[in-house]
Automatic annotation (TrEMBL):
Region entry Disordered, spans: 221-264
Sequence similarity: Belongs to the SIMIBI class G3E GTPase family. ZNG1 subfamily.
PANTHER family, per database record: COBW DOMAIN-CONTAINING PROTEIN (PTHR13748:SF62), COBW-RELATED (PTHR13748)
UniProt organism field: Comamonas kerstersii
Protein name: Cobalamin biosynthesis protein CobW
Length: 365
């Protein structure tokens, strides 16, 4: 049976999550979606749309969607929904999990790596982070949770861009890209964005494309002053070969990079860095090094991903991780005319880029 795609929705207060969820739960979009709402949030859709005397956890909406509020364990809620679906009691094709007010989408994502029963039923489609363009700079300055949410994202949606100038929007995009170069950034109005632009993004899956904005890399090569680090690693834990390579269906509309002189320098603690090598990795050395790094820095490592050239195989090795958990998979063969090069991106909190780089250099064959 096909795995059920899951979108994890995170983002700043006031960024439009509630607007988006209300649309999902009430609009006649023809999709069967289950929305799992974590009840720790400061803003709850319950107040408006779920006025009901029932204590029932799962509510059927008029448009065929389901809303499931959870107060305890996400794993239990997912198992309950899967069981009801198997018995034909509820019908849904995908799940949206809202993580409002939870500082860190990491544990939510980890649920899908750690639990075999969950991993056999569901797959993460992508982690979506909503950013309120009007208040983003202040929120990013003041709150680490906001910076972490950006670091975790597979896709960043920028709301309220109509309330800021073009220059302010460009500066914000520039800042977000330094925190997370692998997430496409798209300006949206959640009142009217097509829902198919929100779902089936295939952003999380292991795949052979490591999409990093080329302008980000170009700029990085000649200017290290304002971009230093963010997290990394890789270990062969081939348990999860069901995160297979779908093409990352993102259309990178944000090619307009912007290196305008008016950018303020924000020294965010969530940063990214890219490591590249033209020599193959020694698999055993790399596995040991990444294992050690994850042990020490795992809690600060938000997302990391790589396409690797490994000694002993003609296929690309694709790895990615969240915090202490990582998985790897064999990708397609290197084309005969393709330059074999390893590329990794690490996104994390105050990671010691020099230690990572030196360690990775020593793992080359």
């Amino acid at each position: 049976m096909a795995l059920i795609p899951v979108s994890i929705l995170t983002g700043f207060l006031g960024s439009g999550k509630t607007t988006l969820l209300k649309r999902v739960l009430s609009e006649s979009h023809g999709m069967k979606i289950a929305v799992i709402e974590n009840e720790f949030g400061e803003e709850n859709i319950d107040t408006d749309i779920l006025k009901t005397e029932s204590k029932e956890q799962i509510l059927q909406m008029s448009n065929g969607c389901i809303c499931c509020t959870i107060r305890e364990d996400l794993r239990e809620a997912l198992q309950l929904l899967a069981a009801k679906r198997r018995k034909g009691l509820v019908e849904f094709d995908r799940i949206v999990i809202e993580t409002t007010g939870l500082a860190d989408p990491g544990p939510v994502a980890q649920t899908f790596f750690m639990d075999d029963e969950i991993a056999e039923t569901y797959m993460i489609d992508s982690i979506l982070t909503l950013v309120d363009a009007k208040h983003a700079n202040q929120q990013l300055d003041d709150r680490q949770e906001a910076r972490r949410q950006v670091g975790f994202a597979d896709q960043i949606f920028l709301s309220k861009t109509d309330l800021v100038t073009e220059a302010e929007k460009d500066a914000l995009i520039h800042r977000l890209k330094h925190m997370n170069p692998r997430a496409p950034i798209k300006a949206v109005h959640f009142g009217e964005v097509a829902l198919n632009e929100v779902f089936d993004l295939r952003g999380f899956n292991l795949n052979a494309k490591l999409d990093i904005d080329p302008d980000f890399l170009k700029e990085d090569e000649h200017d290290h002053s304002h971009c230093d680090h963010e997290h990394g690693h890789c270990t062969h834990d081939h348990d999860h070969e069901h995160h297979h390579g779908h093409d990352c269906g993102h259309d990178h509309e944000h090619g307009e990079h912007c290196s305008h002189p008016h950018h303020h320098h924000h020294d965010d603690d969530v940063k990214s860095f890219v490591y590249r090598a033209d020599r193959a990795f020694d698999p055993a050395k790399l596995e040991d090094f990444l294992g050690a790094i994850v042990n020490i820095y795992g809690p600060k490592m938000l997302r990391y991903k790589g396409v690797l050239d490994m000694k002993g195989t003609n296929r690309k090795v694709i790895f990615q991780g969240v915090h202490q958990l990582m998985g790897s998979d064999l990708g397609p063969e290197w084309a005969p005319d393709e330059q074999r090069q390893s590329k990794m991106v690490f996104i994390g909190i105050d990671l010691p880029q020099d230690i990572f780089r030196q360690g990775l250099e020593q793992c080359l064959a």
